[in-house]
Amino acid sequence: MNRNPYEKPELYEFAFSWRDYVKAVDFLIEAARLAGKSPIKSTVELGCGPGQYCREFARRGILSYGLDLSPEMALYAQKYYDDEKLPGYIIEGDMRDFRLEQKVDLACCMMATFSHLLTNRDIVDHLNAVADNLNDLGLYIIELPHPRDAFDTVKSTQDVWEMENETGKLTTDWCSDGVFDPLTETDRGTVKFRLEKNGLVEQFESPSEARRITFGALRALLDLSGRFHIASMYGDLDVNIPFDNAKAAWRLVMVLRKNP
Ligand SMILES: C[S@@+](CC[C@H](N)C(=O)[O-])C[C@H]1O[C@@H](n2cnc3c(N)ncnc32)[C@H](O)[C@@H]1O
What we know:
This protein is of the alpha/beta class. It folds into 2 domains: about 5-145 and about 210-260, 3-Layer(aba) Sandwich (Rossmann fold); about 150-210, N-terminal domain of TfIIb (Single Sheet). The chain is about 25% helix and about 35% strand. The chain is globular. Bound molecules: S-adenosylmethionine (SAM). S-adenosylmethionine binds near residues 6, 73, 96 and 110.
């Protein structure tokens, strides 16, 4: 058993390679522009993992930092910066308490990384830390599962999927065995990677815990922190998909503006 799924950065990156990161960064820049921030001159990706977004910003000449708690992920993402001589770098650190070398225009926290903030205290500390590292009227974009997924109705995502390329065939099971604890409002389960390559099979398993936050609790914590207000919301990484309860809206993407 591994400590957490982020000890295997190359498998994590392979598992999530279904997303078009160039398009995702186009969206982040457009959402920021629509919220009044353009051009973006500097960014930070929080819980950056392999750094898919921060390095895409950096490839566009934007000073871009990545921050991650996992030493394995930080090393892995930094290698892209070194190999491609990108502007910025990766910091091994905690998104609840960090200080960048300089403040940035835009912060983002993608996929469901925000769910790793397990307690209300974690979330408020995190919002304070992000605000302290943003320029005046800077923006913070958070992507989360759609709030309907917090209830046992219809799920918008799948827990088990396959990816195939020249590396082999990777089957990912992201906590299909997850058990919800209503006292902590967290799900605890097992992340399993099964890589099949040239007839050989490698398997990695690790525990994972994530906060199942409701929309109401999230808004209450935002109000409590007093550091941000909601500038806009989308239902996908697409400015044409509003955040509502339609099927097309399968995510909650919040664009937060730092309060003066
Ligand atoms: C689901 S992965 C997301 C990676 C990437 N941002 C993406 O969208 O695919 C979550 C990442 O958050 C990191 N993480 C979890 N808690 C963290 C914390 N308190 N501070 C910084 N990084 C954290 C993990 O190490 C992991 O790399």
